[in-house]
Amino acid sequence: MGTITIGLDPNIVQVGPLLLTWHGLFTALAILSAIWLASRELARKGIVIPNFDLVAILTVLGGVVGARLFFVLDHLSEYLRQPWRILAITEGGLAVYGGIIGGTLTAAFLLWRQRVPIGPVADAVAPGLLLAQGIGRIGCLINGDAWGGPCTCLVCSGVAASVPAEGLGYCPFALRYTNPKALLPPELLGVPTHPYPIYDMAVNFLVLAVLWRLRRRGLPDGSLFALYWLLYGIGRFLVSFVRQEAIWFLGLQQAQVVALTTALMGLVALLWLLRRRTPATAPARS
Asked: Which of 39, 104, 128, 141 is the most exposed place for a label (fewest CB within 10 A)?
């Protein structure tokens, strides 16, 4: 119980116009880890994708564009005032769901063009996506661009005077950002906040553990990816209640609306895939 203070500068080093940030570093590590794990799973399944390197690069680009687009839409009023910042991705600001959707649509199109079955590839990629999402959250944890709401648990915070009255209540432990360059709102600087990035990281690794156990169980092609959308969607919806973001629809944040939508899509797809499995394709009983 208590507060974890994060005072690291979000920027690691700058040489001329080139800026290396913690967010950029862990985003790069996340992408490399996803490609590495996906390539291992593809090899295990005996799947060969023509021009794999090009497909991987274009999929990553599609994911980055989608991630930035979703983040900008979620903070539209801010970027309308400063439109030149839309391309400043080194500041942080990549929405996970935008990356998932942008990357998925890009990869699906490229695989369709090459007539590569999408279902088995999606199953091979799903664990890598979860690993990448978990690693990427480390950058968010350092720079504060995915912040939780203020925590009013005085046992955790120990600084009652600085906790806003509209805080979100009890938390098992809190994060407090002290570096002026942190990317959370200025009014939250030095204020104990819910450890949202850690919660989301935990969701990713828990879902990864489930998928890793099921990947050899002979499920219909596409089932693992559908289960990924379902389980991560449920987890993301729940942990987002401790975020401090603008309400988007029916009292929910953008991420929660998208999470519910993708979870429902995952559930429908999973049920459909399991129901259409014929006895001939079902795994033999031992």
From this structure: 39
Across the chain, the runs of DSSP E, i.e. the strands, are: 3-6, 11-15, 18-21, 174-177, 247-249, 252-253
Copy the structure tokens of residue 179.
Answer: 């570096």
In the annotated binding site, the residues are 137
Q: Which residue has the higher pLDDT, 165 or 220?
A: 220
Count of beta carbons in the 10 Å neighbourhood of residue 194: 28
Q: Which residue from 171, 173, 181 is spatially nearest to 145, judged by alpha carbons?
A: 181
Based on DSSP, count helices (H) and strands (E) in the chain, helices before strands.
Answer: 9, 6
Report the sign of the C-alpha dihedral through residues 189, 234, 137, 110, in that order.
negative
Nearest to 4 by CA among 166, 162, 141, 185: 141
For residue 61, give both structure tokens.
């680009």
Contacts of 268 (CB under 8 A, 6+ apart): none
Q: Which residues contact 221 (CB under 8 A, 6 or more apart)?
A: 117, 119, 120, 122, 123, 273
Q: Which amino acid is at 62?
A: G
Q: Tell me the pLDDT tens digit for each residue of 134-154.
A: 999 999 999 998 889 998 764
User: pLDDT tens digits for 203-237?
Assistant: 999 999 999 999 998 899 999 999 999 999 999 99
- Say how far apart CA 112 and CA 35 lie, in whole Å: 19
Q: Are strands 247-249 and 252-253 parallel, antiparallel or unpaired?
A: antiparallel
Residue 253 has pLDDT above 80, yes or no: yes
| Spans of all domains in the chain | 3-274
